[in-house]
Amino acid sequence: MADLFEDYPLGPGWDEMFGTPDQPRSTYEALHATLRPLAGGELRVRAEVLARAFLDQGITFALKGVERPFPLDIVPRIIAAEQWRHVEAGVGQRVRALEAFLADVYGEGAVLADGIVPRRLIVTSAHFHREAAGIVPPNGVRVHVAGVDLIRDEAGEFRVLEDNVRTPSGVSYVMENRRAMAHALPEAFTATRVRPVESYPGMLLQALRAAAPAGVDDPTVVVLTPGVHNSAYFEHALLAREMGVELVEGRDLVCAGNEVAMRTTAGEQRVDVIYRRIDDEFLDPVHFRADSMLGCAGLLNAARAGNVTIANAVGNGVADDKLLYTYVPDLIRYYLGEEPILPNVETYRLDDPDVRTHVLGRLDELVLKPVDGSGGAGIVIGSQATDEQLEHVRQRIVLDPRGWIAQREVKLSMVPTLIEDRLRPRHVDLRPFAVNDGSQVRVLPGGLTRVALPEGALVVNSSQGGGSKDTWVLTEPGAPAEDWYDPAAWDGPDGVAVIPSPRRPDPGPGQSGNQQQQQQQQARADGRTAC
């Protein structure tokens, strides 16, 4: 019987399982010992059952209008407890700095007056909304949920790749991946002490309730979705169900007298907190797109009046601008008086003529990114690009230097991944999810590991052919082990369990073609639904 790891090569990046050939790092010893006796065919069967279960349950993403399963690789990624403490502290620090920045830039503007961030960067950002100026959330929180994308460089150091503080997606895969993996690879769970992730909906609900308007002791919280044709609808429905709150669309809401209510069979019911999964541009036709059929007219006025809280806050996208990302280390020093715990990837600002000239001479060595791009769209990796692609991006940079950044090409770390019947190294990144309730920033232990499935590929997004891995954060020594796994649920054929979960609901009647188009357009516009 061939070894799953036979001829496993160590690539140019940091291999998370192996420090030297055939010698697993201490964090992976138990997993390696579990996998090694398995036959490639057996692991393949388990992986195929996982894929079928995800498809049957509607755990998919939409690519060019076609629903596809989001591939889950059966080999998890493992992070040691002390490494996670470092990540947790760094992500929390970054969220606190971005909170302070957003409050400042929509308020006093001291960071601009002091010259820390150029005013022109803010006013030219596509996601800076003057309509949100002066709105102060009830508990001061603008970033209720953040997804901070991390990579590990060639030395194994975690670095920040970008920030997502608008409507970061993907946490549903974190929870579903764990449920599926506990059934598909139970031997590894019994040999490894993993921190649980099912507490996320409770953490989120607590943060949303804490954000309620003043004087509301028992707030009504809703999740606002674009609708069933949005590629992240599964996540919207799952979060609403797990939190025990209503899932609503814009047509279910009504604003009157700067107050928001939802229509129910018993009449209108006041709404206090809206966890919106709709982009700013579609949220309120009074202030943004007048033809939007996804939002509700008057929401922003109700928020300004202090009668409803919109989470995350309108206008947060200015902090997602990839040019602003280059200033975040300075923002941490400016607002917090601390040194950044997690460094950025080395990045060039192309609005500087000297830097631009330097970069244009090295396009084939760098990664070029549009500042408004997401989901991997528009990224050009110089070393893998053709001469025509490099010339095209050169012209676009010359015409719009504000619209681009350049970064050093980092060889992302790699984790063994099942390719046919063998394990082969594939590049990964990590999106931890942070929740801010106003008193503390808590980071879900694990997050979404995305894996680039094509050999040598560095873009991990699902829209670019990527998949995901369950991310195991090991418990601290002496801490209680994860206890939710139930061996009795292992009842599937051939040792593979059936994984129950609700399907995507019927979209039902009453939606116009224009409304469906806007739901899909919103997903394409933000790109974050394609994790």
Structure commentary:
It is a single chain. Helix content is 30%, strand content 22%. It is built from 16 helices and 24 strands. The strands form seven sheets. The protein has a five-stranded mixed beta sheet with strand order 5-24-23-20-19. Strands 7-6-21-22 form a four-stranded antiparallel beta sheet. Strands 9-8-13-14 form a four-stranded parallel beta sheet. A hairpin with a 2-residue loop joins strand 1 and strand 2. Helix 3 packs across helix 13. It is globular and about 70 Å long. The C terminus is likely disordered.
Key terms for this structure?
531 residues, four-stranded antiparallel sheet, five-stranded mixed sheet, alpha+beta, disordered C terminus, 22% strand
Topology:
Blueprint: E1 18-20, E2 23-24, H1 29-35, H2 40-57, E3 60-63, E4 66-69, E5 72-79, H3 81-105, H4 110-113, H5 119-123, E6 145-152, E7 158-164, H6 171-184, H7 186-191, H8 200-210, E8 221-224, H9 233-243, E9 246-248, E10 253-256, E11 259-264, E12 267-270, E13 273-276, H10 280-283, H11 299-304, E14 309-311, H12 322-325, H13 328-336, E15 347-349, H14 353-360, E16 366-370, E17 380-381, H15 387-399, E18 404-408, E19 414-419, E20 422-431, E21 433-436, E22 441-443, E23 448-452, E24 466-473, H16 513-526
Parallel strand pairs: 5-24, 8-9, 8-13, 13-14
Antiparallel strand pairs: 1-2, 3-4, 6-7, 6-21, 10-11, 11-12, 15-18, 16-17, 16-18, 19-20, 20-23, 21-22, 23-24
Structural class: alpha+beta
Please give the largest β-sheet: 5 strands, mixed
**What's the total number of strands?**
24
Intertermini distance: 37 Å
Q: Strand order within the widest sheet?
A: 5-24-23-20-19
Shape: globular
